[in-house]
Design a protein that fits this description.
The protein is 21% helix and 28% strand. It is α+β, with helices and mostly antiparallel strands. The chain folds into 2 domains: 45-199, Mago nashi (Mago nashi protein, 2-Layer Sandwich), CATH 3.30.1560; 217-267. A 7-stranded antiparallel β-sheet has the order 1-5-4-3-2-6-7. The protein has a 5-stranded antiparallel β-sheet with strand order 11-10-9-8-12, with no helix packed on it. β9 and β10 form a beta hairpin. The longest helix is centred in the last third of the chain and has 19 residues, at 181-199. It is elongated, with a radius of gyration of 23 Å. Residues 1-15, 48-53 and 55-59 have low confidence and may be disordered.
Length: 268
Amino acid sequence: MRWMVLLAFVATAALAQTPPMPPPEPEPTHDITGVDTAPLGGAISIPLPEKERRRLKKYEIPELVGSRQAIGSQLIDGRLRKPILDYISEQGPIHQRLSIFEQGLVVIDAHGAGGTIRKKLLIPDDALKNYVKAISTASLGEVRPTDVSLPRDGRRSLLRIYDTTDYFVQREFDPMSTLPKRLADMIVPLEDLLRAIYEDRAVSNSVANYEPKVGDQLVGDDQKIYRVTRIAEGHIVELQCISQPTRLFVEMKDLYLYFIGTPGAVTR
């Protein structure tokens, strides 16, 4: 018993001497020049039930833990990032595209029923490795074109894997068909990532961490344009709709929940 007490004491003392982990560094803030232009008919996420919206305000989406905003130019040493893969899915009027580039830049472009969603973000290195660990030109090349059902009836999916910017392997198939396991192991993680980015309103929304100034203009979820008219007490933002007599008061830290970008395409 004495040995057990001594060991417990030593363990407790060791834990007490272990310095606590430093808190994660906060995301840097940016002004209106770092906010993306809202696309025509754009949305920042797929519509969710109110219960789910409250959950996402409180918890992070697991697939995006550690991800960062992709603000401003995403060039590397003045050049475009090398592509890693493209995943495209088309079913009738609905078009979805997910592209992954070197150093974890992820870009999605979706349009069709429900509006247009365009987003980009930077996923951490370990997450990038997890998403692409089963994906290579060699593994996709082992899926013969005869192993999959061809696109039909307005349904088409395409997975393109790049070895270099000049060489790639791709396969087209019917997304409603049963996929061979090798191909399904590549597709399922990408669809999970696509879903997570669709639902996210924070790291993939350039309005998050935006510091407003009087005169700035933002596009709301309702596609109306609002002008920042006042910032009260340093954190309450007053916004006036420029097309209707509507006035909003929003906590600065919550702007990303209600706004999707700056005017531009929406005014054309």
